[in-house]
Specification:
The chain has three helices and five strands, in the order E-H-E-E-E-E-H-H. By secondary structure, the chain is an alpha+beta fold. It has one domain. A hairpin with a 2-residue loop joins strand 2 and strand 3. The longest helix is centred in the last third of the chain and has 31 residues. It starts with a strand and ends with a helix.
């Protein structure tokens, strides 16, 4: 079994006017282009209540770092009380959305994701020695990179929502 360590877990909240479609595209593009992650959508749920909508989206992203390490990133979007609004932008009416956005991210460092060191007890023992004495600085380096990527994604998403709401 691969070793999975949750290295990062955080979320942001924002309320205001934004374009849901543009925010979705921005987040997807940032994760795939800037963090070089392969993004997969696990679920997309919409719940209507009156003229407002609740949307829940779950993404699982991953990136193979080496034959031994992999980054897994779980992203969950929860948009509540989303309604359609029209605003004036540069003298033109533009259709936007208004609501509360909560974005949570969990970063997981997966070691031995292919299970190569799981076949015998001796291999498991050797893996323990390998991780504890041979590559501890590399593990720290990958943990720092994963934390940095996840934190930067949340900062970019927050900045996008703040900027979009002020237009």
């Amino acid at each position: 079994m691969p070793e999975k360590d949750t290295i990062f877990s955080s979320k942001i909240k924002s309320t205001g006017v934004f374009s849901f479609e543009d925010f979705y595209r921005f987040c997807y593009d940032w994760l795939s282009d800037e963090a070089n992650l392969i993004v997969g959508e696990d679920s997309y749920k919409e719940k209507l209540s009156g003229d407002s909508k609740t949307v829940e989206i779950e993404w699982t992203c991953f990136r193979k770092i080496t034959d031994y390490f992999r980054f897994d990133v779980k992203v969950v979007f929860r948009i509540t009380n989303m309604t359609n609004v029209e605003i004036q932008k540069n003298g033109e009416k533009v259709k936007m959305n208004k609501g509360a956005v909560e974005t949570s991210v969990k970063g997981i460092l997966v070691r031995d994701y292919q299970g190569k060191f799981e076949k015998t007890g001796t291999q498991k023992f050797m893996r323990g020695i390998y991780e504890k004495w041979v590559i501890p600085s590399r593990i720290d380096q990958y943990e720092d990179k994963l934390v940095g990527d996840c934190d930067e994604f949340l900062n970019q998403a927050k900045a996008y929502l703040d900027l979009e709401g002020k237009r």
